[in-house]
Amino acid sequence: MFVDPIAELKRTISKVQYNMTFFAHLMYTDVSNEQDIEEVFGAVRALSAELLSSANLIPFYSFVHVIFGLPKIENIRKSSTNLIALGGWIKRQGRDDRYPHIIKNSQELYENLDLNIDDKDKIDKKTIRALFKNND
Fold first, then answer.
1. Neighbours of 66 (CB within 10 A)
2. CA-CA distance, 7 to 126, in Å (whole number)?
3. pLDDT tens digits for 59-91?
4. Model-level pTM?
């Protein structure tokens, strides 16, 4: 009863990690190929929906998430929002103000889902705030 939905959510979280790594080169640069942009946009939007729906399949989530090492439901919801925001900002090619938003949402996503990220690739919150100030 519990194992299949939990495994499904863990697979979805793993897919988030995979897609963030696989599409990183397209997220953090300007891409002139509209097809690539649409592919990333579609992937992160689909993952947002899949993340929420996978978590909703788990009965008594607030109790079992601790036992099975799953993120809190609030973090699942925030991550879904981060993925939607990433999709929106990725489509805004050519705008310098998009990078702070992409970095902020990526960083929050990694934190919310407790995804593996090398310490050298982490950006502290102070630096992220400074990026927003520099784009005002």
1. 9
2. 36
3. 999 999 999 999 999 999 999 999 999 999 988
4. 0.88
